[in-house]
Structures are given as C-alpha cells and as structure tokens.
Amino acid sequence: xxxxTQMEGPVTLSEEAFLTINCxxxxxxxxxxxxxxQYPGEGLQLLLKATKADDKGSxxxxxxxxxxxxxxxxxxxxxxxxxxxxxxxxxxxxxxxxLVFGKGTRLSVIA
Amino acid sequence: xxxxxQTPRHKVTEMxxxxxxxxxxxxxxxxxxWYRQTMMQGLELLAYFRNRAPLDDSGMPKDRFSAxxxxxxxxxxxxxxxxxxxxxxxxxxxxxxxxANYGYTFGSGTRLTVV
Lengths: 111, 115
Known about the structure:
- The complex is a heterodimer of chains A (111) and B (115).
- Chain A has strands spanning 3-6, 11-14, 19-21, 23-26, 32-38, 44-50, 56-59, 62-65, 75-77, 86-93, 100-101, 105-110.
- Chain A is mainly β and 111 residues long.
- In chain A, strands 2, 5, 6, 10, 11 and 12 form a 6-stranded mixed beta sheet that branches. A 4-stranded antiparallel beta sheet of chain A has the order 3-9-8-7, with no helix packed on it. A two-stranded antiparallel sheet of chain A has the order 1-4.
- By secondary structure, chain B is mainly β.
- Chain B has no helices and 11 strands.
- Chain B starts with a strand and ends with a strand.
- Chains A and B meet through strand 5, strand 6 and strand 10 of A and strand 5 and strand 10 of B.
C-alpha cells in the first residue's frame, strides 16, 4: 500500500538556520502530496501541497517540490524562526482514499 | 475561518468507563475521519465516513470502539469499556471528496487519559 517515510527527529536548529526535512513516498499512481504542521496542543494544519510532478508548494516561507523521479517531497525553509517550532508531517493522498501520514518530525528552533 | 469542533478537549476517566468523543465537521464537508495519535504509533486512521455512511473502520478495535454519524453535523467516537492503552489524542478531520487534490481540516483533538 501507499506509504510515507520522513526523516526522524528531533531536529534542533538555531534561529535563521536553513531547514530541510526529508520525505519520500511509495504510491501506485500519481498521488497528491502534502505537508501538515502541528503546533503544541493543537490539531494538524495544512501547510502546503503539490498535486502533480514538478509542482512547488509554498506557504509562510516553506517550500516543497514534488519530485516524481526521486519520489520525494522535501520541506525547506531558508531562515527558521522560534515560532516554527512544531511537528511536521508529510502525507499523500491517492484519489479519494484517506491521507496517509508519515510519523512526523519534531523541529525545535532556539534563539 | 470554518473549523472542526471537537468536545471535550480533555477527558480523564477510569478504566472500564464509557467514553464518548464528539465532532462537528465543517458545514458542507461530506467526509469525516477519526485519527488517533500516540508517541509510539504516530497518526493512525481509525475510521471514516462519506455522506454519513461508514466506509472503513478497519483501524478500530471492534470489540470496544464504535463510530457513528447520527446526522451531518455530528460524528461520535465511543469507547466502551475504556482501557489504559486507549490513552491518546483523538482527532477528527473533515474534507470534501473532490479528489486527491484536497487535504483535510483537523479539529484540536480530545486528549484522553484512562487511569
């Protein structure tokens, strides 16, 4: 079945550092890809998405490019802030099936 | 902004007691999901409904869990009897079945502690 693999955390960065969180997927067909973010004590929020190969999703300074050749959707941000500290989930969806999530990567940004 | 509302936000109960969690999906969303989040397992899909009909509940322990949608504005997840291993955060999410392009909107979750 479909699956998502994320780099294990936690990831600890200093403010203004560059962030990459790796995500690869396995799917039959052509899924849509998503990044969700979960702040402490809250539910998941959609951060960005890409629906076809070579699409780039972006939001709040975060970006991810749908790479079909490497089955990847890595999340990047050029300069992280303390307020970006959260858990980040990569996910995919094929057709009308439910979202399949990775296990999440916890990011801590220190001032 | 439209939101998914879950109640209660926190619940502490004794082993063996019945627990009911409620979810009000976003108006117009026809698909509702129940997820459970734990440190060990991450996010697990328990069940989901489309147009109020259950489509898949294979993620739920059938002997103690049940999920229903009595109407389009309410989804419930019930555990009877509860056990300490059920301690987790339970999330409800809603979405439309517009196809793969659409993500879901999540509620803030119910944090359940069974002692």
